[in-house]
Amino acid sequence: MNLIVAVDENWAIGNKNELLVSIPADHKFFRQETTGKVVVLGRKTLETFPQGLPLKNRTNIILSSNPDYKVKDADIVHSVEELMEELKKYPDESIYIIGGESVYRQLLPYCDVAHVTKIDRAYEADAYFPNLDKDDQWEITAESDEQVYFDITYHFLKYERRK
Predict the structure, then answer these.
(1) Does domain 2-132 have CATH number 3.40.50.10440?
(2) Mean pLDDT of 137-146
């Protein structure tokens, strides 16, 4: 499985249920990677999307502990075990974990590839992604040239779990 995330220099991913910053090239990369694929996300992440609706042209699977939670055009699962059963229907390489913090933490052990947009700046934040640079199970296998959006510099990194 894959995951895709944008982090700041402290591995922060959000503040008050919002992204830290909006970078058009990062959104474009996200769309290119996930369109036509399966995305797995939590309820709070879904609620940050326009009108709180699932992403178009993708299979959306929402992980929520609330047994009454329903969303049009999305599959809802209530545990990691139920999610893993549901994901057996899809090829591993077409599955992308897209957040938020608790979903990333629960599913990181099942992922082998992490697409990380690393932003060279620290933001005020209350949600974080585990620091893969400090985890010897992960290594960077691809890195873009430095990208710039106004005064923000960032890189697209691909981390892979060491075999």
Answers:
(1) no
(2) 98
